[in-house]
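Allow me, if you will, to draw on your knowledge of protein folds for a short while. I have a record of one protein: its chain in single-letter code and its fold written as C-alpha cells. The full record is reproduced below for your convenience:
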Amino acid sequence: MKAVIKPSKAEGSIMAPPSKSMAHRYMICAALAMGESIVNNISYSQDILATIDCISALGAEVIKEPERLIIRGRGISAKGPLTLACRECGSTLRFMVPIAMMRGEDTLLTGSETLMTRPMSVYEDLAKVQGLIYEKSEDGILVNGRLGAGIYEVPGNISSQFISGLMFVLPLLNEKSEICLIPPVDSRSYIDLTIKALLKFGVDVKWKDETTLEILGRQTYSPTEVTIEGDYSNAAFLEVFNTLDGQVTVNGLDSDSRQGDRVYYEYFSRLIGGRSTLDISDCPDLGPVLFVVAATHYGGTFTGTRRLAIKESNRGKVMCEELAKFGIESTFEEDCITIEGGEPVAPEGVVHGYNDHRIVMAMVTMLSITGGSVDDAMAVNKSFPDYYERIKKIGIDVELTE
C-alpha cells in the first residue's frame, strides 16, 4: 500500500502516542509478577502484540481492553517445549531470550526473516560460557538451560536490549549478580528506563558505578497498576512539522522522562539554528527524522550512526538513497553520516519505505513539502498504528491507496 501526500502544513494540538519502550518493559514485569497488574494507556502496535503473544505463551493471562491491559502474571510457569513468536520486534526477541534461558526446557524463538538476521552474539557467547544450548536454524533460535548468578561482562556499545533482557531475570536467581559494561556505554537512557520499570514492580537494580549494575538475588515482582508515558520517539515525527513552518503542540509527554529520545527538542533546535554535528549513539531511532530536519535546513553531520545498519532496514544507507531523490546530497560512512541542506524537489516516481516504520514516516515528512507517494505505507503499524489518522487531524493531506 502507498501513502499519497500533497504539500501541506500541520497545525493543531495532538496527544503523543504511548511509549513502546515502556510498554514492553511494563508488560514483561507484570508477566513475571504473581497476580493481577493493570497497564494503562496502551496502543496495540505490531511490536506490542508480539510481546503480548510471548508473555501469554509463558503463562500470563492477558486481557486486552481498548486503552489498557489486564495481565494476570504467573511468572515463568509454562511447562514443556515452548515457542515464543517475536514477529518482527527486536526488543521482544532480545528481552525474551534470557527469560527462555531461565526455563530449563526447549524454547524456540521465532520471527521474521529480517528479525532473525539481527545480531545476537551477546547471548550466543553467554550460552557458550554457561554451557547452555543456543542453536540458530531456519526455524528460529532454540534455547535450553538455566542461567546462573554471577558477573556478566557485556560490551557497553551494543544494543541496550541485551542488557535489559538480563536485568529482567537476574533478580530472580538465588545469588547476587553484576552486569559489568565494557566502555563505551551507549543507550544508557534505555537501561535507566528498565530500572524505572523494575522499581515500579518492586525489583531493585542499581548502578554500582558508571559501568556496573548491581543486582541482588531472591527478589520477586509485585503486581501493580502503571500508566505508560508518552513516547518521545514517535512524538518527534509529529513535532518535526514545526521545523517546516507548522504549529503543532504535542501533549502527554513527561518532562522528567528518562527516554533518551527526549533530546529531539534540543537537536531540532540546533539543526534549524545552523549546521550542527550531533552524536546519535544514545538515540539511534531519531536518525531518520533528524536527517529530514538537516536536509530541509542547513545540513548536519551525525556521529554514532553505526547501529542504524541493524534496524528494520539499514537506515543510514537507505535514508541517503531516498533523500537523493529529493535532490539532497549526503555522505555515508559506517559511523558517520553527513546530510547537506537544500531545497527539496519533488521526487520522480514512488519513494521507498523499505518496510521500515521510521523510514516511511521520514519520507511522509519530506513529501509534505514536495508532494508524492511512498510505498510500504503500512509499516507504521509496527510502532504507530494510528499515525496517518493523527497527522490528518493536524492538517497533513495524506491518502492511502493500493
